[in-house]
Write a structure and sequence with these properties.
With about 300 residues, the protein is of the alpha/beta class. The chain has 9 helices and 12 strands. Helix 5 links the parallel strand 11 and strand 12. Helix 5 runs antiparallel to helix 6 and helix 8 crosses helix 9.
């Protein structure tokens, strides 16, 4: 494993475990483990073959039951690159837009971070999809899948277990890390956060970072509203997203990891300020290059 703390499994409700990968930075995502009476439902996989095998070992440490269902909260590789290790014995569920996005993305992260030990990653998209909602039953326990995008991406899914007041939020929510909406929507994420808040969960598993509660919605929303205001003011002053990011102080968000995402988020916010719809195509390549420039030329750090 990389020079980061070991992943850990944390029971967050009866039969529901969070698999948390510190330190939650690029490609160190969380997964959910839902143990039913006769099978396990896994929410997301991980970025590398080695890390997904570790996830599978962690599941085996708490139950002998087989993994029969995998839910992808969205298409990004840190959440889907392990699908192939389960696809021969489990259905893989995602939003209707997820399979095409997985195939289009391929193994893009390998080119972004060529030094990471990715292993034998095989692109494996969901083979079961839904458009708005889908309900799973783990014995008597109701597990609801809600489409929540466009937010982090255009195919975001959250997993809501009403009887446990527990929400697995995917990358709509980060804890301790900077949110990232370059491929999604600032306004769409704010709307999604309102819908998630209305569920009134007591426990929230973010896509990255430690388990928290509904206070995570408020932190994320404050950041995104700040991004919107910064984009509006900077556009009015004739600044570019990179210039705006360089001139802005990060304030209460300065201690969040991966702060260079401010540039990508501003690219999305500038586009929406100019009238682009949520999730509309924008020049993401330029945004990624400028994130590195904002970082003083230092490549984005991935410890997967």
């Amino acid at each position: 494993m990389s020079a980061v703390p070991e992943p850990y499994l944390q029971e967050i409700a009866d039969g529901i475990h969070a698999y948390v990968q510190p330190d939650g930075t690029w490609c160190l995502n969380n997964a959910g483990v839902l143990v039913g009476p006769d099978a396990v439902t896994l929410v997301d996989t991980t970025a590398t073959e080695r890390r997904t095998r570790r996830l599978r070992e962690a599941v085996a440490s708490v139950t002998h039951l087989p993994i029969r269902t995998v839910v992808n909260t969205h298409h990004h590789g840190d959440h889907t690159h392990g699908n192939h290790l389960f696809a021969d014995r489990a259905r893989v569920i995602g939003h209707d837009r997820c399979p095409a996005a997985v195939l289009e993305q391929g193994t893009l992260v390998k080119s972004l971070w060529p030094d990471v030990e990715w292993g034998d990653v095989q692109v494996s998209p969901p083979n079961v999809t839904f458009s708005d909602r889908m309900t799973l039953h783990l014995g008597d326990l109701r597990v609801e899948l809600h489409y929540a995008g466009p937010a982090h991406t255009d195919n975001d899914v959250v997993v809501w277990i009403p009887e446990r007041r527990t929400l697995l939020a995917g990358d709509i929510v980060f804890n301790g890390g900077t949110p990232f909406v370059l491929w999604g929507s600032v306004s769409g994420t704010l709307a999604a956060l309102d819908r998630l808040r209305a569920l009134r969960p007591t426990t929230v598993l973010p896509g990255h970072g430690p388990v928290g509660g509904p206070e995570l919605f408020d932190r994320t929303a404050r950041y995104l509203r700040w991004i919107q205001t910064l984009a509006r003011d900077a556009a009015g002053a004739g600044l570019t997203p990179l210039q705006a990011a360089r001139e802005a102080g990060l304030g209460e968000f300065a201690d969040w990891t991966d702060s260079e995402r401010v540039v990508g988020n501003l690219h999305r916010a500038f586009a929406e300020h100019a009238g682009a719809g949520p999730g509309a195509p924008i020049d993401t390549r330029t945004a990624l290059i400028e994130m590195v420039e904002y970082n003083g030329g230092k490549p984005l750090t991935c410890l997967a």
